[in-house]
């Protein structure tokens, strides 16, 4: 096929200039062909790359020509999937390919690169090695039923289990940071019209994204924007004011959207005009907020009310005093948000991670700590060995040594085409 299009099979790993031709020899385009024979290629299979001039029409014709000769379009993620299936990379690394492409902040890109280079997998593999070693010891001692307990005590298996838990917590901590970098958080700004939601939005974003006016109820629709705070992707939604008893259809729709947005929020900032104080209207809005969401009350306009910048707890609510107009107190709000979601911008060596990785880590943790209880409470080495096996399987899901076809389909189908 390559010879039919390029007229020749290029020398391995050399950029070969050639004309890409139709069946009747007319030239479709001219460009560069690169040949990577397997197994020293990205997928581990023979790969040829054709680089043309990039016009969609010409590219389309070139693809059609390849298809006429027996090729087919790749499925989303198929290149990475093949690389995984051919042991060129493990599952966490393959996922990092997609995360690197999609990363929205520099920190996220750097973390994805770390995962791609194997930082995450290496930590998991090193942990698995220790775990397997311990499991083999425990299993071996079961065979000496009479002396089992002595064997386990002598090797300080309980201490080893505690050490494993500490190591696992360290990995999970990094993974949580990696997930925050990958997925970010969504913050909803709520409050009465004119409380200062748009102004706060602009302060956070650092520009005039929302329209700030003196007319109550200007922000009718939900205004969404993605910004970064120290590498943390933040989706801010600036919602319509929650008016009471409005009959205006547009405002009613705005309120409905606000409720939707609140339901999906990771954190709610309820803005209150501090120069007016907490009004019955504000209290009503506060009571209408979803009870299960972290919420911070923002006492805005301190430049007018005369209050100091500060953070306190009022009526059981985290409260921050600031001015969205002058910017006083914004740094405090940033720190507060980081703390609320557990983001540590200064943490080094973070690797990118996904929810499924965190799930696997917490299942492994649960199994090991169950195992510890079995040993400490019942002296049951057999049960401990079984729990350690469960932990091993859970961690194997991260690197892909232990996976189902459904999981692979799910992971690779979310990739972009051609990756
Ligand atoms: P929204 O309706 O809640 O989005 O409120 P806006 O952000 O549009 O603000 C309403 C009015 O309050 C505008 O005139 C803002 O300039 C003003 N405002 C907002 N924040 C502050 C603040 O911290 N201090 C003062 N003095 N005015 C503010």
From TrEMBL:
The TrmE-type G domain covers which part of the protein? 184-342
Kindly list the positions annotated as binding Mg(2+). 198, 219
- Tell me which residues bind (6S)-5-formyl-5,6,7,8-tetrahydrofolate: 21, 49, 88, 419
Q: Where in the cell is it found?
A: Cytoplasm
**InterPro entries hit by this protein:** G_TrmE, GTP-bd, GTP-bd_TrmE_N, GTPase_MnmE, MnmE_dom2, MnmE_helical, P-loop_NTPase, Small_GTP-bd
One GO cellular component, as annotated: cytosol
Gene3D superfamilies in UniProt: P-loop containing nucleotide triphosphate hydrolases (3.40.50.300), Probable tRNA modification gtpase trme, domain 1 (3.30.1360.120), tRNA modification GTPase MnmE domain 2 (1.20.120.430)
An example of a GO molecular function for this protein is: GTPase activity
Q: Which example biological process does GO assign this protein?
A: tRNA methylation
User: Family assignment?
Assistant: Belongs to the TRAFAC class TrmE-Era-EngA-EngB-Septin-like GTPase superfamily. TrmE GTPase family.
Q: What is the protein named? A: tRNA modification GTPase MnmE
